[in-house]
Amino acid sequence: MRRWTPVALAASATLAVGGCGVADSGPPTVPVTFSITTTTPTSTVPTPTSKASIGPDGIPVETGPFLAAATTTRLGRLVNNIQCQSLAQLAYTTYAHLQVYVDGRSRALPGGIGMVGATTHPAPRGLVFAAHTCMYWVHTRAADGLISVESPVPRQYTLGDFFRIWNQPLGTDRVADARGPVTATVNGKRWPGDPAAIPLSEHADIDLAVGRPLPTPTSVDWAATDL
Prior knowledge:
Shape: globular
Largest sheet: 7 strands, mixed
Structural class: mainly beta
Strand content: 25-35%
Number of helices: 1
Distance between the termini: 5 Å
Number of strands: 13
């Protein structure tokens, strides 16, 4: 397996959240000294794209406008016992793919979700994100829809965990700011319940379609990736 993963995050960060956090409903335990914007989405590409290209891990970069800004990520708070740490945790790793459609049109997932103080670094196939301050165990490193679970302990992570870390709503009638009936599929099969309960299992192909029409579910060629 080849991953463009910095094992140590930047040691010169203004904050050092490390392995601790506070309850999701409470304030950060450390003062935050950098600004956060929720109006200008950022990703591994400078602007939303309409042309697919292969991303750092061999998965096509998603097309269309960004679903939401990566910078709405929680600022180091503990989220469902998921920590934001200054070192990458690689004891347990799982990778799933998420594709979102709104009214039949693709919406891209930005890189840098789950990272506080995200920075970009060159890789052989584009840019990857790393965290200058801390990184949650569930995050994205590029705009290819890949959700990386990199955890110190094995446990079942869910799509709801990912959206809570991102600080974006997810339910049967809403995905981020997109509202309407949500149809979820996992590996091409209809998911019958709340999409927040979808497990981030190894090589899961997850599609969320808000409204109509319903596009053909995405199928990643995992054998062609570096994962």
